[in-house]
């Protein structure tokens, strides 16, 4: 059945209309906000962590930065859709999503220093709970690629002990929840071309130019 089909059938049952009545397809004003409040109250009762966030300006566009009590948990480019990122954090970490620039002061300052050419590494506690297994192993290695240096996806695979996992390294970089801070932009194809990047190739090239490696 294609995505445009509006009916389906089951053994012994005639066609079933899957189209929603128009009055059920409209979300009433305030429903989403009410849902968020109820989820936040539930999280408070269950003792879940807060996720604080703010948006900062940068030469590669507005960046959403978010942190738990453990550390910085997410950096998101505008092209990812900041609202979608916040919804994902609510689902994966906690519905207690709070706009709290003061709690992100250190992260915002270090990001500003990095783009201003005053910082070559970050000294922030990180919460890597959005990555696990091999992907987290790759992220740990990325932090050891020095400012101004690059490695190929093949070299990273070898460095983490799985030379055949080149594609998996690419996936780990593409799903890096902390771009810029965990420098997946320093990973290139073996021929020196950029490969992919969660923030777009223009942003990846800009970061490499900033670091003097492009």
TrEMBL record:
Catalytic site positions: 184
Transmembrane segments: none
Keyword Phosphoprotein among UniProt keywords: no
Catalytic activity: a 6-O-methyl-2'-deoxyguanosine in DNA + L-cysteinyl-[protein] = S-methyl-L-cysteinyl-[protein] + a 2'-deoxyguanosine in DNA; a 4-O-methyl-thymidine in DNA + L-cysteinyl-[protein] = a thymidine in DNA + S-methyl-L-cysteinyl-[protein]
Domain Methylated-DNA-[protein]-cysteine S-methyltransferase DNA binding: 134-212
Keywords: Cytoplasm, DNA damage, DNA repair, Methyltransferase, Transferase
Principal place of residence: cytoplasm
Subcellular location: Cytoplasm
Coiled-coil regions listed in the entry: none
Keyword Transmembrane: no
HAMAP family: OGT
Similarity-based family: Belongs to the MGMT family.
Function: Involved in the cellular defense against the biological effects of O6-methylguanine (O6-MeG) and O4-methylthymine (O4-MeT) in DNA. Repairs the methylated nucleobase in DNA by stoichiometrically transferring the methyl group to a cysteine residue in the enzyme. This is a suicide reaction: the enzyme is irreversibly inactivated.
Protein name per UniProt: Methylated-DNA--protein-cysteine methyltransferase
Record organism: Sinomonas cellulolyticus
